[in-house]
Amino acid sequence: METNEPNDGHAGNPFTQVPIEITISVGRARPLVRELLRLKRDAVLPLDRRVDDPVELYVGDKLIARGELTELEGDATGQLAVRLTEVADLRDGL
Q1: pTM, whole model, 2 decimals?
Q2: How many domains does the chain have?
Q3: Neighbour tally for 79: CB within 10 Å
Q4: Cα(62)–Cα(85) distance, rounded to whole angstroms?
Q5: In a domain, 42, yes or no
Q6: Domain containing residue 56: CATH number
Q7: 1-32: string of b/e by CB count within 10 Å (b at 16+)?
Q8: Residue 93, in any domain of the structure
Q9: What average pLDDT does the chain have?
Q10: Separation of alpha carbons 11 and 18, rounded Å
Q11: Is 31 domain-assigned?
Q12: Are strands 55-59 and 23-25 parallel, antiparallel or unpaired?
């Protein structure tokens, strides 16, 4: 049987079809507990990163890549996406 997918050595492995969740970290906030308790709707919580800083992609607690936030175009205009700039070597566990 022919496919248009590249042969990556995992043909026939059913686990390659299982979706996983990737968490995108855009930054961290470190408010004091008293500041956290005062948060209300429309409050602004400053993060430790700037808008144009790279974001980090995690599967569980494993950093797998870094990238830049971008906006999709066409029918998906307004939807956020990530353009990858660095990818970990996941095959060798590095």
Answers
A1: 0.72
A2: 1
A3: 11
A4: 17
A5: yes
A6: 2.30.330.10
A7: eeeeeeeeeeeeeeeeeeeeeeeeeeeeeeee
A8: no
A9: 88
A10: 14
A11: yes
A12: antiparallel
Nearest one of 61, 63, 67 to 80, comparing CA atoms: 67
Condensed to tens digits (0 to 9), the pLDDT of residues 44-78 reads: 999 999 999 999 999 999 999 999 999 999 898 88
Q: How far apart are CA 62 and CA 81, in angstroms?
A: 20
Rg (the chain; Cα; Å): 19
CA dihedral of residues 86, 91, 92, 94 (deg, nearest 10) = 30
Q: How far apart (Å, rounded) are the C-alpha atoms in residues 76 and 74?
A: 5
Tokens at 39, concatenated: 């948060």
Domain residue limits at 33 = 20-87
3-state DSSP of 5-43:
CCCCCCCCCHHHHCCCCCEEECCCCCCCHHHHHCCCCCC
Distances (CA, A) of 77 to 51, 53, 74, 84: 19, 22, 5, 19
